[in-house]
Write the structure tokens for this entry.
Amino acid sequence: MFDRVIFHIDVNSAFLSWEAVYRLQVLGGTVDLRDQICAVGGDAASRRGIILAKSIKAKKYGVRTGESILEARKKCPCLELVPANYPLYRKCSQAFLKILKEYSPCVEQYSIDEAFVDMTGTRRLWGEPVEAAHKLKDRIHSELGFTVNIGISSNKLLAKMASDFEKPDKVHTLFVPEIPKKMWPLPVSELFFVGHATERKLANLGIHTIGELAAMDPQILKKHLHKHGEVIWNFANGKDVSLVEEQPVQNKGYGNSTTIPFDVTDASTAKMILLSLAETVASRLRRDQRKAEVISVEIKDFQLHTVSHQKTLNCATNITSELHQAACQLFDELWEGQPIRLLGIHTSHLCGQEEARQISLFDGADYEKQEKLDAAIDKIRERYGVDSVKRAVFVESPIDHMCGRVTREKRKVDYSKIDVK
């Protein structure tokens, strides 16, 4: 009936589900967190306190993913919070993707807990799309212990929209003939790529549903929302030509930021934090054999005002000390003495590891020696863990020597200190 068949598979409350399964199947727990008024949250004490996943019962209190723990607890004082265990989530994600790849050779990981699968031409193997989706959904549940939603359509956009219909543990279709009935009555905020700001602009134009957006003159949308207006008009009409990409799109930039547990009021502490961020960004660049030509620094103060500044480097690099030096220079140009809540580093204009360095008569730094030193440290950390080698400045310091994406809370959860019921 339909030539192209795309599945979008989304794990239901992924972090909470994975934590619940681990506690039940590995730690011997008897209480399923998914049945409690519960959420996975960041560390409130370190000000990374946001809700990462919530149970259905917590959702009934109005608890939302992405809001602060403080906001969530105002709505739901009885909310039980469990810490995030990122290494566990990576393992669960890998097991999830492994099963998907048994159903089709064309699988695109969209995030840690969702993926697109091109099921075109697999009817003789797995049956009709809805039948195949139920087989896949039930197998994931029986083998891995958690549930998923599967959306089915002829393109990625509609498949993703379908997977967001009623949850959990459901299969939904949204083929083009079903759009008027299933998608157009929905609030425009439910459409992919429509955020709060776009929703407000559309409301000013009298557009409140996806159907009203689909019926709007695209030239009017383009006038008010520029290129974005054209994109969401196509989406509202179910138009999407993107393919399921087996290979991940190469990063256009590498960055890292961290919310600091205390307000930073001196430059030396800020520069230590920038060093820890440079460590993580540079190591990721080296891992992917990339170098960066542009670096930027972001500062968010205690009043949540954000400023940023960037510069083009003399030569593309992935050397930690070189990135840190450039970041410190940007920081000195940018910071006006206000207490700092967040610091970030971002790199862009990437090139390959083989990019040659332009030699300068006025620069006596031994870059080859620094590259070899960084490579040796990477190997040690890969084999023995990120804490096996750290710079002396971080010894006995409250600042994590590799903060941001690999914060200490993301590395390990000590279950001996948790009352697993």
